[in-house]
Amino acid sequence: MSGMIQGGTVRSTIRPGLEVDIVLKRDQRTGALTRGVVKEILTNSPSHPHGIKVRLTDGQVGRVKAIVTDGAHAGTANSEADG
């Protein structure tokens, strides 16, 4: 089961290879999410209130809204799994 961790506004939580949900520039009005794998981090500052800008492996660029987890790498972020 996959889950999501909010945290797309802090650069140190994002790294190449992570699966993330981003909002593309054209989707900013609707907030529609696009899922993909981070290829490159484009934001240089340590944080950004609207999300860290990344390029996905398919070339799309957008701001991270959530980091996708597969449960095995979630650690303690998903406390419901402990129950």
Compile the SSE list and pairings.
Blueprint: E1 3-5, E2 19-24, E3 34-41, E4 53-56, E5 61-69
Q: In angstroms, what is the radius of gyration?
A: 13 Å
Q: What's the CATH class label?
A: Mainly Beta
Structural class by secondary-structure content: mainly beta
Count of helical segments? 0
Number of strands: 5
Give the tags:
SH3 type barrels; mainly beta; 83 residues; five-stranded antiparallel β-sheet
Structural description of this entry:
The protein is an all-beta fold and 83 residues long. The chain has one domain (3-73): SH3 type barrels (Roll). It contains no helices and five strands. The protein has strands at residues 3-5, 19-24, 34-41, 53-56, 61-69. Strands 1, 2, 3, 4 and 5 form a five-stranded antiparallel β-sheet that branches. It is globular. The relative contact order is 0.31.
Characterize this entry briefly.
With 83 residues, this protein is mainly β.
